[in-house]
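Notes on consecutive records. When two proteins share a document, each keeps its own sequence and its own token line. Never mix them. Below: protein one.
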Amino acid sequence: MKKLSILVALLLLVGVTVPALADVDLYVDIKKDKDVEVNEFISIYKDIDFNVEVFLWTKEGAEAKSFVNQKNELNFVDPNFFCDKNDPTIIWNSINDNSGIVGVNQATGNMNNQGNVVSLAITDGATKVDSDFVDGHYFFKGGFAEAQASADQRNKLNLVYEDRSDLKLDLIKDSINHNKGIVGVNQSVGNMNNQLNQVALAANGYALVALAETDLGQLNAVNVVETSYGFKIDTICNSINYNKGIVGVNQSAGNMNNQANVVSIAATGFQLGIK
């Protein structure tokens, strides 16, 4: 025993290390904080196409069409050849309290085109709408309403020469009031004016399809006006009030003007509902 103690002491003195062997179990608790930021951009595009097929068996229809052409071409106005009067043209306390279709044209000039055109097609809609469902399609039985109005107005290659102090006067006073329906008024003291009030109306009480179309073309080209000391007066006073319906008014004191009121109406009282 004494020798062993002396051996250990010597080993320590010479710096000799003795390895140590051991089994170790290690338990660790870890806490972690993490911040996450997400930026996301989403774009959604959708194309939706609707294809609607209507299979229509027509039983009754209302169709109205109106076509008007007005032209002033190669006209010449010279006071040395035309005797212009100074007398005024007057509509006074007239064309009131009417029901229906009213058309008025007034002109003191030369070579004026004026028109009031009405085209009507109306059915009472006695044939009611019904439908059959065959092979995934609805077959409708009903009517249609179609209205079309077209107008073409042209002033071309006209010459107006006025050198006298003639007075041309158009006057509408206390007139064209309290009317019901379709009212058209044209008034002109000039020369070579085109004026038009046009209505096309189609109505069907049980129409499945209602179509309305209107076209208007107007042209002024290569015209000459020379005027000195001339007086032209258009006056509408206390008129065209309290009317109900369609009212069109054209008024011109100049030369070679195109004026038009064109209306196209297609109407139905039927409302389609499919479940």
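Protein two starts on the next line and is unrelated to protein one.
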Amino acid sequence: MTERPPEAPARRTLDPELETALTFRWADLDGVTPDLPGCGGRLRADPEDFVVRELPLYLPSGEGSHAYARVEKVGCTTRDLQRALVAAGVPVARIGVAGLKDKVARTEQWLSVPRSHEVAAWAALEALAGVRVLETSRHGNKLGIGHLRGNAFRVRVRGAVPEGADRARAVAARLSEVGIPNYLGPQRFGRLGRNAVDGWRLVRGERVPGDVRLQRFFVSALQSQVFNLLLAERVRDGLYRALVAGDWARKHDTGGTFEVVDAEAESPRALTLQVSATLPLHGKKVRLSGGEAGAREERLLAALALRWTDLVRRHGDRRSSRLANVRVDVEAAGDDLWLAFELPKGSYATTLLRELMKVDVDAPLDDASSSGP
């Protein structure tokens, strides 16, 4: 008789402090310009207030087996576009996107499908309310997650304080000197900010509803929460602009990464934003760091009742703790402001906007960002 595999343990009640630590809240993630007042105001009163244009890593060549379309959408998610393409007969695994875009915004992005489906696919998108196909082309490969340089944003802040433009410019000037903290934003953590809680339950062997893709996303959220807490701790401890022994630092001009052996010798380059510490998204290929950096990681993991080996379901990666060379253009429009800026892939506009505004920048987000490392 074939033995049945043991069932995963049932869900148990978490310690309230642990559950709180695993739940995403901006209030737990320290900003780096607390001494500068924000411009105030509110976001996303209308989808037209939040305009996002994808910056492609490459443009389609015009020839090949995959059809590409540049699509504008308002009031729907990238997942809605994918569902429409599936309904038009495109296998879900053959649909290519570089990233996922929010619902409460006007966004522009590229998608790809096999050339044999292009007529039905683009007709299905054009039939969706709020969607326009702006341009079509062809290319030799499917568009893949991460095949983008970043995103360009134009954001309206309604009801800013009277001196809001000057305040926003002052904060932007400070951030150009110290860098923007590269926190992972609320899209990673679900509507209630609790995806990392489910990720914790999964890696501890508990049952969590959801298909394989969703469970990968939960574990990715757990990686992300650990990263965020490590970064917030460094901000609180005065190490945001410094390096410690065992860090892996990244050069902002070339992207080259090196291990920090002599932190005192290397920290001046971090102070002038030439390099930044990377922090781990622990996984199969990313173990604990060495030296003081590793000791800090181990203490946090222990406080979360985790070991780095609990996260080997994911490959892992290292993510820069700061964003550098981000220019913010500020334009006054009556009582409102328009903010324009570009961010590299994998970064979140809200981590910049909360520094500029000093208000709650969370908004209902129906879309999820890519599942990460």
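For the record: Confidence is low (pLDDT under 50) at residues 363-373.
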